[in-house]
Amino acid sequence: MKVTSQALALLTAILLNTSSAFTSVHHHRASTSSSLKVTNDLFVEMTSETGAAAAAGTANTHSSVETYYGDTLKETADLLTNACCTAARPAPQIAQAISNIHPDVIKKYYGCGFCVPDEVEGMTILDLGCGAGRDVYIASQLVGEKGRVIGVDMTAEQLKVAKETQAYHADKFGFDNVEFHEGLIEKLDDIDSLTDGSVDIIISNCVINLCPDKEAVLKSCHRLLKPGGELYFSDVYASRRVPQELREDEVLWGECLSGALYWNDFQNLAKQCGFKDPRLVEDAPITIENKKVQDKIEEMGHKNLEFYSATYRLFQLDCLEPHCEDYGQAVIYKGTIPRFESGWSLDDHHFMEKGKVFPVCGNTYNMLKETRFEKHFDFVGDWSTHYGIFDGCGTSMPFKSSIDGVSTKGGGGGGGGACC
Fold this sequence. Notes:
By secondary structure, this protein is of the alpha/beta class. It has helices at 5-16, 35-41, 51-72, 92-99, 103-106, 134-143, 156-164, 166-173, 214-224, 244-247, 250-254, 263-272, 291-299, 362-369, 401-404, and strands at residues 124-128, 148-153, 178-182, 199-205, 225-238, 261-262, 279-285, 307-315, 329-333, 343-345, 351-353, 357-360, 377-380.
């Protein structure tokens, strides 16, 4: 990957500076707070006696991220690692949509996946951390003239590009169905047009890891989504909890590494915020591909810390259970989702062939029955008999790429096994 002299200079300065840019940040101490709250803290502990430090730490985080993405990075090639890069080949409809987007938007893209799900025509989509607007303009084409796409970002320099090219895209698409707002995705209440239950789908592309208060983001998403809606997003996750000394590094934070949640903490946090059964769609290992950054991580004694780019879908369904329970149910895919006439994947282990009876757990049944996907399936069974939990519904690391290092992204949708 190309590394500019400006970016290397910044990294070198930080490596040589023996005092952290975040001198006001306290190291984690034992606390009566829940482990999720402590883990979600990221820069400062969230206890009452350190409230002022917490506020200062959060402000420093926002300022650092805004500077990194507004001033330091001028285009995608300026990134020091591949964490905020999308390696997988886009699906044909996404590739076609990208070809219609202004070059100034494309070159300022910093994301780790393709995070617009299937079956979105006519939907209202909210993009958290939209940057210069690449995913907004992809979604704009997919939802069509009757749909609506809302972009939110904290970086004025990025939004300037998105807004300046809005007329170009309206002319290119034949309609204008987008709007942009400057603000923090932890404070979506500040945006008047975003009301409870007003959004069908929320997307985000390698941004939530940059936020110091991830719990606030997920709770807002749950509140804003309509029942049956979903948060469908790509982000960076760690194989273990990221050590404090790495979390305090500005460059590693800006490169989407230091703010990565440990995968199990993310799943527990999502459930705590109302998303009871997070579903992994695809994942890929992240290779640093920058010797100075990799050396720094290893010199701190964290060589075995691994990072993954992963796409999750989180449904806003109160009827979901904490685990995959077996009620003897099944679904039959009709082959009617556009571009997926032969089969379709809900997630990385639910690929359903057209016309084939596919056994599912109660949660998967509801994810299809109580959402926009209902019309594409026939449903078999009811809730009268419970047969226990599905075999294999455990708590081991979910990323298949952690086993063999092979990405599951861009593969057309996981394996063909039954639920869990």
